[in-house]
Structures are given as structure tokens and as C-alpha cells.
Write a structure and sequence with these properties.
Rossmann fold; four-stranded mixed sheet; 27 helices; extended
Length: 740
């Protein structure tokens, strides 16, 4: 962008240094000097200066030889690069905003004695053609986002990210860029850098990709070391093989696959050794103090998991763990007898290690936080394809976002960190696991809130209570069950089926919501309505439910599940039981539909009772005639996601013998159904099955409303009691109600 430079920005109040560096004199910020001293330069400090000392001076732009002025700008970050920056207002939103601010800032102009004529002559210089933009993309974006000043940092940051991405991938250099005209921006960037370097007009300053702090609080910077060893992740063949492995992998949530691909694309040379800290000595430079960098030796340690048990049990020493041993165990290279003689490890133990590796590897699933995509995880893929045969490549990664507390990031300074060691006493392990698994999906931030933890605790205690009620129960074989018991059985079955489907898709939150919370809620409802049932039926049904739940939920609440399992008289571990194969029958689907029907009916009764503010003595429930079911099914067929006219419903109804005698009623019914498109998605029960469901809950409904009489009517019955003409308003799955 030097072809578009109109001026140079310097922070007027910041401290700068004139330094002698590699035979030249430079003006750079103090922070920049500290970094350059660690990057293999010969540096001495000449003098200290203030940024304002250079305001109004001019500099010569490399390559173009243009003379441009130096102006003050407080937005300049002296901790980045040299702390002195070119201004390219046509293509850099920050520069454009700062230039407009300065041109309108009489105080600053006067303070630094800026020449107004020179300042006002500065105009943006367009040097990149970008599809979708005019001459000055930065100006357009600032106007579009309503940027007022250089202090509108959020808007400016958004504009900057947008334009840099668009220019980098689709920008082309214009004719005013000399020998670089016609090049894509990504090509021109490298070409200009090479030209400047060749002319000794530029050098590289290494920066971290984002701000990083040491545990001591100091800033982490990049140091250049002599005789440093690098891993060349930019090697074309290696990178292609890594992409091949990535394309075969399961990445969940899948939205992070793009992040892996982006990381693979920019990965190039990375240092693999260092001179301080703990670590393994680098074998190629023994005695020179180089140790293997942690991100280089941690990428295949999953393979070590498979043999560490044998190493510990057999007392194998570190000295016996030779490269020849690992080559045989992991790569099947070498002769085991020779290795046994060299290492003094018995042959059968070596074979035990090899068998264990081949049994367990590859690592089926690696789970960690998204922060490790750009390092540990990507490196792991590269190293596996470089070292292991394809059958041992990693098959899957799962990832999660960060954990915060009460809406804030956790930090020692905030005092809101929960040490892992405190979890068992303060919350319990099972409660913590249950809560974390249920409050967020893997691709969303987990917010630890005490009110939600308290709710999870209340539900966990209720589960424990239900389990203890059923522990000593003698299960009745071939039990004849009432309607509420059938509903619970099917509901538990449906919930567990959904839970298993969810966990197969790595959707842990829905797995817990269905498998635990959904089932506890179903038991809550059952306990409320089943008081009139025989005790052996209630407790047998309850025990069946608990037995199924602890098998499915053992991975999340292992301690409570095992405790309940053993209290029920089992000697084996519930964690060793296979997840059940669940098949949902038509009866299960129908029972679930009836349960939903009853739930909606109870809500409707509650709403009317609250409205009239008196307890009813009689509750009349009116169920629709079956011809309405047929009408609604017909309307659903005609609807198919598009608007349906009443005339079309009327015309089609004439072709159905059960509807033709109800044309007047159908006209009114069609008007009502078209007001609520949601009715075209409902599943329906026949009038008889709706009636059976209500009969099953009749006693509960009566008890709920202080022994009110419950009367069930079906529209169309000749002797129906219907003083308010309620039957005509009954619709499929939505009975009409009359309370007296």
C-alpha cells in the first residue's frame, strides 16, 4: 500500500528512540526496540525522543520516492511493529477517519503548527480495484457504517476487517502501482516485500498473532535464535496429506472445519526447539541446551496412553524407552528379540505393549477447546500423517467454547474462578457434570450461573428420591397397566430414544435434556396422576423407568447411577451395561400423542379456571366428531406449505362421503383453520382415542378441581348435553370446555 501513502502517523506523546541498528539509524518506539533486540540485530541506543519532535517533518517513501509529511495521531499503537505507520486513507478506514479528524481539528493544527494548505491538499489515493467498491473503499465503508470519528473503534474495526478481506482475496493492483499493476493483492504484497528487502529498504519484525501474556504478567514477544530448528508445515506434499486426513475426519461441531482449513493454509515454518523451560532434550543437538518445544512433542502423546499402564506396572525405566522400542511398538519396525536384548525388557512385555497400542489406536475421539485448533490439534493431524500409516490417523475431534461465570469471563483478578479441587465439596462431581452437560451446546459459551446449578441440584435430588422409592420394590411380571402407566412407559422410551440419537450426533445437551430432565418431568407427572393406582403397579413402573435412566445417564452422573444400581441388588457395574437398542412402536407414538393431548387439555382447563376465578363443580369436555379429523387431514394435504383457499377445501370436501353432509359446517370450520396455519402440522387422534385418554386421567382431573364431576361428550351424539353449543367448537386434539 505504499503507493497509496499520503502521510505518516506518529503518536505525539509517546516515547521513541533513535537507534543504531545493523549500520543504520532508525526512529522506532521503545516497545519496538525491546522486540528488535531479541530478533538477531546489532542495536545501540543513540537518543530518546518524543513523537511530537517529528511532526511536520517529511519522509521519502521507498520505491515511489514521494515526499510526504508526518502528522500526529493518538490511535497509533506503539506496541505494534515500529510504532510509526503509513497513512493510506483510500483503503484503510482508521487512516481515513484520522485524516478527516485532523483536517477539522483546529486545536491540534494550532498546537503543532501544521500547515493548513498542505493538510487540506491531502486526498485519498486509490491503488486497488475491488469488485463491488468504487475508487475509495475505506471512504465508502466509513460512510455506510456512519463512522463519525477515529474513536468509533467498533465500527472502524468492522470496516477494516471487511475491506482487508475483500481486497486481499479479490483486489487487483491499478495502473499507478508501477511494475506491480495487474497483480492480485495477495501476490503484490509478497512482490513489494521482496523488492523492499532486495533494496535494503525493509526488514521483518516478528510479532505474535495476538497479544499474549506470560503467567507472570509480562508481554510475550517473538525472539529469533541462532541455529534454531524449524518444522516446515508449508511443505507441499506434507500439507496435501494433512488435508487428506482432515477431509476424512469428523469435526464436531462441523462449523469449526473451516477454522482447521484456514489454519492449514497459513501454517508454514514453526520453531520446534527452545532454550528454556522444561522438556525433552533435542536429539540432534545433544549438550547444546536445546529442548523440544511443547507444541512439537505433545501432538502424538495419545499413542503413549496406550502403553503407559504396562510401563508403570512392569517398572520399565525411562532409560529403557529407546527409539528402537517405540519404532517397533508404533511402526512395526525392527526385530522384537533384538530390542528385548538392547532394552532388557522381556519379549512378552514388549509384545503386550504392541498389542495394547494396536487394540486401542487410533484415538477415536480427541476433545478440547477451540483455542487449540490453530496449534495442538492441527499439529496433531500433521504429525500423525507424517509418522503413522493411514489406519492410525485420527478419526475425530470434538470441540467446545469457553466457560464463563455469571456472564463474565473467569479470572483470578475477578475472584470468580472455581478451582477444580473445590468442585466435589461445594457442588459434587455428578451435579457439576450434569449442569455443564445441559446448559449449552458445544459451539456456544457455557455460562455457569448459581441459580441454574441450584435447579439442577433440585432435579438431581428428586431423581434420587424417586430411585429410593423403587429400590426395594418387587417387580410384578406381566403387569396389567392403567392408562397413565402406559403413557409413562412410552414417554420414557421416547425420551431415551431421542437421547441416544442425540449422543450419536455429539449433541450432549439434548442427550441430557431428553435422557434426564425430560424423564424426571415425565415421572413428576406420573406421580401426580397415579395415586389411585395399585401400589405394586406404581412402584414397578417407577423402578422400570429408573433402571432405564441410570443406564443411559451413567456417563454423565456415574456415581449416583452406580449407587442406585447397586442398591437395586445388582453386583455388576452399570457403566459396563450396553446402551439398549430402542425401537419406537406405533403404540409408543400413539401414547406420546395422547400424553401431549392430555397436557394441552389440562392447560386449557387451568386457564379457564383462572379466568372465572371459581372452582368448578362440573367440567364438561366436548370432543370433535371424526368427520372433522377427516376434514383437517384433507386440508393438510391441500396445504403442502402453500396458502389454501376456502373454495378449494369446499370443493374437495364434496368428494368425501363423510364430509358431503357437513358442507355448511365445513365453510365455517375452514375459515377458522386458515386463521391458524399451525393446525396443518398437528398429528391427530380419533374421537374414540381422545375419549379413552381423558377417561384414563378422569380421576386425576376430578381430584385436581376438588372432586369436580367430569363429563365427556362426543360431538354428534343425539343425547348430548350442550346448553352453550360448545360441541360445534371442538376441534381435533383441542376439545371444547364448559365449566359449571
Amino acid at each position: 500500500t505504499i503507493y497509496g501513502a499520503t502521510n505518516v502517523w506518529i503518536h505525539p506523546e509517546a516515547d521513541y528512540l533513535e537507534i543504531r541498528i545493523d549500520g543504520e539509524n532508525w526512529i522506532v518506539s521503545k516497545e519496538s526496540t525491546s522486540k528488535l533486540m531479541e530478533q538477531d540485530h546489532d542495536i545501540s541506543i543513540v537518543r530518546e525522543v518524543k513523537g511530537k519532535d517529528f511532526v511536520n517533518l517529511e519522509v521519502t517513501v521507498p520505491i515511489t520516492e514521494a515526499r510526504i509529511p508526518i502528522y500526529p495521531a493518538t490511535f497509533v499503537d506503539t506496541n505494534h511493529a515500529t510504532g510509526v505507520v503509513y497513512s493510506v486513507p483510500a483503503h484503510a478506514p482508521y487512516d481515513y477517519a484520522a485524516l478527516v479528524d485532523l483536517q477539522n481539528d483546529e486545536v491540534t493544527i494550532k498546537e503543532y503548527s501544521l500547515d493548513r494548505g498542505t493538510l487540506e491538499k491531502i486526498k485519498p489515493i486509490s491503488l486497488i480495484s475491488v469488485k463491488g467498491y468504487g475508487e475509495f473503499p475505506a471512504v465508502e465503508l466509513c460512510e455506510m457504517l456512519d463512522v463519525k470519528t477515529q474513536n468509533d473503534k467498533e465500527k472502524l474495526e468492522k470496516a477494516t476487517q471487511t475491506i482487508y478481506k475483500d481486497e486481499y482475496y479479490s483486489g487487483v493492483m491499478k495502473d499507478n502501482t508501477g511494475k506491480f499493476k495487474g497483480l492480485k493483492v495477495e501476490e503484490a504484497k509478497n512482490a513489494v516485500a521482496k523488492t523492499l528487502s532486495k533494496n535494503n529498504q525493509a526488514t521483518v519484525i516478528y510479532e505474535t498473532s495476538k497479544k499474549a501474556l506470560c503467567r507472570c504478567g509480562g508481554q510475550i514477544i517473538v525472539a529469533v535464535l541462532q541455529d534454531q530448528y524449524f518444522l516446515n508445515y508449508g511443505d507441499k506434499k506434507w500439507k496435501e496429506t494433512a488435508f487428506k486426513a482432515l477431509n476424512k475426519m469428523l469435526i464436531t461441531p462441523n462449523k469449526y472445519r473451516q477454522t482447521f482449513e484456514n489454519t492449514f493454509n497459513w501454517l508454514d515454518k514453526r520453531p520446534c526447539v527452545r532454550k528454556r523451560g522444561l522438556g525433552t532434550e533435542f536429539p540432534l543437538t545433544k549438550g547444546e541446551g536445546w529442548i523440544i518445544e511443547s507444541l512439537s512433542d505433545s501432538v502424538i502423546y495419545m499413542a503413549f496412553y496406550t502403553i503407559i499402564k504396562t510401563i508403570r506396572e512392569k517398572g520399565i525405566t525411562p532409560e529403557q524407552l529407546t527409539p528402537e522400542l517405540f519404532d517397533y511398538v508404533y511402526l512395526n519396525e525392527g526385530k522384537p528379540k533384538d530390542i528385548s536384548e538392547i532394552t532388557e525388557i522381556p519379549l512378552e512385555i514388549i509384545e503386550e505393549m504392541k498389542d495394547s497400542f494396536e487394540y486401542y489406536y487410533p484415538n477415536d475421539l480427541r476433545h478440547t477447546a477451540i483455542a487449540h485448533i490453530s496449534n495442538h490439534l492441527s499439529f496433531a493431524i500433521f504429525h500423525h500423517v507424517a509418522i503413522f500409516p493411514e489406519k492410525y490417523w485420527l478419526p475425530a475431534f470434538s470441540l467446545n467454547e469457553i466457560l464463563i461465570r455469571e456472564g463474565q469471563k473467569m479470572g483470578k483478578s475477578k475472584g470468580n474462578v472455581i478451582p477444580i479441587a473445590h468442585i466435589p465439596k461445594k457442588y459434587s462431581v455428578d451435579l457439576t457434570r450434569l449442569h455443564l452437560a445441559s446448559v449449552a451446546t458445544a459451539d456456544t459459551v457455557v455460562d455457569w450461573r448459581e441459580t441454574e446449578v441450584s435447579y439442577a441440584l433440585q432435579r438431581l435430588r428428586k431423581f434420587w428420591e424417586y430411585a429410593n422409592r423403587s429400590i426395594d420394590v418387587y417387580k410384578t411380571v406381566d403387569l396389567e397397566t392403567a392408562f397413565p402407566s402406559k403413557i409413562l412407559r412410552s414417554t420414557i422410551k421416547n425420551n431415551l430414544y431421542k437421547a441416544l440419537k442425540s449422543i450419536e450426533e455429539f449433541n450432549i445437551r439434548d442427550y441430557v435434556l431428553e435422557g434426564f430432565y425430560g424423564n424426571i418431568r415425565a415421572i413428576d407427572e406420573y406421580i401426580k396422576v397415579a395415586d389411585h393406582l395399585p401400589r405394586n403397579e406404581r412402584e414397578t413402573i417407577l423402578r422400570e423407568a429408573i433402571e432405564d435412566i441410570i443406564v443411559i445417564m451413567a456417563p454423565v452422573i456415574p456415581h449416583i447411577s452406580e449407587e442406585i444400581h447397586h442398591k437395586m441388588g445388582n453386583e455388576s457395574c452399570v457403566s459396563l451395561k450396553q446402551f439398549p437398542e430402542i425401537t419406537i412402536t406405533e403404540e409408543d407414538k400413539e401414547n406420546a400423542l395422547q400424553a401431549k393431548f392430555i397436557s394441552n387439555l389440562l392447560e386449557d382447563i387451568d386457564e379457564i379456571v383462572k379466568l372465572v376465578k371459581t372452582k368448578p363443580q362440573k367440567i364438561h369436555i366436548y370432543i370433535n366428531s371424526d368427520w372433522k379429523n377427516e376434514l383437517y387431514e384433507l386440508a393438510k394435504e391441500l396445504f403442502e406449505g402453500e396458502a389454501v383457499k376456502i373454495g378449494k377445501i369446499m370443493e374437495s370436501s364434496k368428494e368425501h362421503k363423510n364430509l358431503v353432509n357437513h358442507m355448511k359446517e365445513i365453510a365455517e370450520e375452514a375459515k377458522q383453520m386458515l386463521k391458524d396455519p399451525s393446525i396443518f402440522r398437528i398429528e391427530m387422534l380419533s374421537a374414540e382415542k381422545q375419549k379413552n385418554a381423558i377417561e384414563g386421567y378422569k380421576e386425576f382431573i376430578s381430584r385436581t378441581y376438588i372432586d369436580a364431576e367430569i363429563h365427556i361428550h362426543v360431538a354428534g351424539d343425539k343425547k348430548i348435553y350442550d346448553p352453550k353449543n360448545k360441541a360445534s367448537k371442538a376441534r381435533p386434539m383441542r376439545p371444547a370446555l364448559l365449566l359449571e
